[in-house]
Amino acid sequence: MRTLQPLSTSMPSTCAGECVSNSCFVPAKKAKPQCKIHNVIMSLCDPSYKTQLLALLEESISSITENFDSPLLLPETEQIREKIRSASHCTRCVLFFLLLNVDAVLKDKIINLDSAMNLPKMTRFLLDLRQVLTVRFFTDETCTPSNFMEECIDCYMLS
Q1: Which residue of 25, 30, 94, 155 is 20 to 30 Å from 74, comparing CA positions?
Q2: pTM strictly above 0.85
């Protein structure tokens, strides 16, 4: 019959040196965990997400004004900001889709907010938004803002 060896009680060589005080230890800053929202486009079109939608619109307008950096745009962007704050949810959604079509910062933010498994769906939707939906909205006089919003939502669900 075989006997077990006694446990070794020697100290590992990594701990044999002088003690390191905890006062000089500075933990690394962790990146803020970002909440992932599955089907973020559908969520933002829900009126319960109106504060998040408003914040995204404000950030998008700020990024567009920074990118173009024109003093002539300041009065117009301030007018848009004022209208956004008092607009209906449908109007905010329409503006969101229109800004999503042109603002790369907003696109990146939305893609990062959505779950990773929705990336092909989001890619297909963004292509349809650029090539079909926005073009139809600006060229077809019968397309109302509420129709445009519904078409965008339907296109996202089907993509």
Answers
A1: 94
A2: no
